[in-house]
Amino acid sequence: MNETIKLLQNRRSVREFTGEKIKDEDLELILKTAQRAASSVNGQQISLIVVRDKDKLKKISELSHNQKHIEECDAFIFVLADFYRSTYAANSVGKRNVGPKTADGVVVGAVDAGIMVNAIETAVNALGYGMTVIGAIRSSLKEFSEMLELPQYVIPIVGAALGVPKDRPLSRLKPRVPFDSFVFFDKYDAKKVEEGVEEHEKDMVAWRNENNTSQLPSYKEMIVRIYENPHNKLVEALKSQGFDVLDEIEEK
């Protein structure tokens, strides 16, 4: 099998680290590689902030629901939706940038952040390190915006905890929904999706039992835990950083 395909097919989230350091040159290579990720209209509306200071990592952990692996990782990367850069570019030629004021702009920032974090993870895994994506930073956007001294039009979207992974064999990779309930041709198949959810629920429970992780929620349990009620309240934090979710803005 092609080595790149093998790397991608065997990716998994790593939450247990040895405490060893990532080589500085490897971290720089990871970051430079990630910078080649695609972005909407090549606007490059993503920036990264890397944190390695242990006291700061502890604080990030506390603000992210006390996830211990954040405190124990070697480096934490904030992936920022950064419209400060493109706003400056537009202003420098006497024009405005309405991107951060629109629903479309907020979506663009989130999409580009997702592309970026995937590029980071691929580079991390290629060099033999481990990583897990941290979405919980969105529960403390205001605090992180202050901690990182972010200007208007910049907001943290997602984080990544990196380190040297502990050797923790699993019975198999964590299951995914059945392939035929994930990929469709020509039209969506709701029935297949429903059948896939039921099959996946059973498979997740089996995987959990195989790996002695009964404390972990099943697929349905996790969905209900996160989405039964509003999970993160973002509107105030977004607006405090200059973002809005409008579809129309007064013509200039």
TrEMBL record:
<keyword id="KW-0288">FMN</keyword>
<dbReference type="InterPro" id="IPR000415">
    <property type="entry name" value="Nitroreductase-like"/>
</dbReference>
<keyword id="KW-0521">NADP</keyword>
<dbReference type="GO" id="GO:0016491">
    <property type="term" value="F:oxidoreductase activity"/>
</dbReference>
<dbReference type="InterPro" id="IPR016446">
    <property type="entry name" value="Flavin_OxRdtase_Frp"/>
</dbReference>
<protein>
    <submittedName>
        <fullName>Nitroreductase family protein</fullName>
    </submittedName>
</protein>
<feature type="domain" description="Nitroreductase">
    <location>
        <begin position="9"/>
        <end position="155"/>
    </location>
</feature>
<keyword id="KW-0560">Oxidoreductase</keyword>
<dbReference type="InterPro" id="IPR029479">
    <property type="entry name" value="Nitroreductase"/>
</dbReference>
<keyword id="KW-0285">Flavoprotein</keyword>
<comment type="similarity">
    <text>Belongs to the flavin oxidoreductase frp family.</text>
</comment>
<dbReference type="Pfam" id="PF00881">
    <property type="entry name" value="Nitroreductase"/>
</dbReference>
